[in-house]
Design goal:
The chain is of the alpha+beta class. A five-stranded mixed beta barrel has the order 1-3-4-6-5. A hairpin with a 3-residue loop joins strand 2 and strand 3. Helix 1 packs antiparallel against helix 3.
Length: about 200
C-alpha cells in the first residue's frame, strides 16, 4: 500500500509539471503571432497614405493641364481675328455694306476710311451674329486678301467670344477637378461677362 501510494503521488506530480510546462511552450508562438499584425498594421497606413498622395498629385497635374489647354485653345481661336482688329496700324480700314449672305460668308462693297486704302466692289466677311444683311459695319481688311473682319469695340468683343466660352468650360474643370471653387467662379464670371458684353455690342 505505501508503495502504491508513492507511485500514484509521483504520477500526479509528473502530470502537474507537464501541464505547467505546456503553456510556456505555447507562449512563444503567441508572442510571434502578436508581433506580426503590429508590423503589418504599421506598414499598411504608410503605403496607403503615399498612394493617396500620389493619386491626388496626379489628378491635380492632369486637371491643371486640361485647364491650360482649354484656355490656350480659347486664346488661339480668338487671336485669329483679334489680331487684325486690335493691331490696326498699317492695315486698311473702312466700311462694308452687306448686300447678300451665303451659308458661311456675307459680301458687299468696301468703302475706304484710312489713308492708302482703296475701294473694292466686293469683299467677304464671316457670317455670324455680328453681321446681318443690309447692315453697314466698320471693318479691317486682312492683309493680302479681300476678306474683312469687323472692327471697333463690337469687333474686339466678338473676336474674343471663343475665349469667353473657354473660360466657362475651364471654370467647370477648376471647380470640379481641382476643387478651387472660388477660382472657378471667377473664371465663370469672366466668361459670362465677356459673352454678355459681346452680345450687347453686336
Amino acid at each position: 500500500m505505501p508503495a502504491t501510494a508513492a507511485s500514484s503521488h509521483r504520477r500526479r506530480g509528473h502530470s502537474r509539471k507537464s501541464s505547467a510546462k505546456s503553456p510556456a511552450r505555447g507562449a512563444v508562438p503567441a508572442k510571434g503571432s502578436a508581433k506580426s499584425p503590429a508590423k503589418g498594421s504599421a506598414k499598411s497606413p504608410a503605403k496607403s497614405s503615399a498612394s493617396g498622395t500620389a493619386l491626388r498629385f496626379g489628378r491635380l497635374v492632369a486637371m491643371g493641364a486640361v485647364t491650360v489647354l482649354i484656355l490656350l485653345a480659347g486664346v488661339w481661336g480668338s487671336w485669329g481675328s483679334a489680331q487684325h482688329v486690335m493691331l490696326t496700324k498699317g492695315r486698311e480700314q473702312g466700311t462694308v455694306e452687306v448686300k447678300r449672305c451665303g451659308e458661311d460668308t456675307c459680301a458687299g462693297p468696301y468703302t475706304p476710311l484710312s489713308a492708302g486704302s482703296t475701294a473694292r466692289a466686293r469683299v467677304e466677311i464671316e457670317k455670324s451674329v455680328a453681321v446681318r444683311k443690309g447692315g453697314i459695319y466698320t471693318v479691317v481688311i486682312k492683309p493680302g486678301s479681300d476678306e474683312v473682319v469687323r472692327s471697333g469695340p463690337a469687333g474686339v468683343l466678338y473676336a474674343w467670344v471663343p475665349l469667353g466660352g473657354a473660360l466657362l468650360l475651364a471654370s467647370v474643370v477648376v471647380a470640379g477637378g481641382l476643387g478651387r471653387v472660388r477660382v472657378g467662379w471667377v473664371l465663370a464670371g469672366s466668361g459670362v461677362a465677356l459673352l454678355t458684353a459681346a452680345f450687347l455690342a453686336v
